[in-house]
Amino acid sequence: MQEKTENILSISERIVQFLDYLKVNRYKFSQQTGVSESVLLNLFKAKNKPSVEILEKILNKYPALNVNWLLTGTGKMLLYEDDEIPKPACEMCRQKDETIEVLKMLITTQNKTVDLQHSRIEDLETQLGQKKKAG
Question: What is the value of pTM for the model shown?
Fold first, then answer.
């Protein structure tokens, strides 16, 4: 369950806390948001503060993340309950399901092609047999 966080963490630290909540590493978060891993590393090390562009990328990917909490530390981390937030794992499952459907369609198409080829081979063998008998 999400808890209120006092305004003691920096924005960068709250981003780290959000990654911990999501149970994803920097690399996966980078892949999901489009924020480079090196930029995230600098945020984690507190070398840089996140730009508006970085915050936009994160918030676009995770609309349930409370922008007020992210910027100020006040309020709850999430705007919605935990089960309403789109988890990366759910997105990966959706992508996996879509990939499986595409593969099923390809296999069906290939099977139809193979069946047509077998039928054509049988027709050609029949014609060849008829020519041998006639010839």
Answer: 0.55
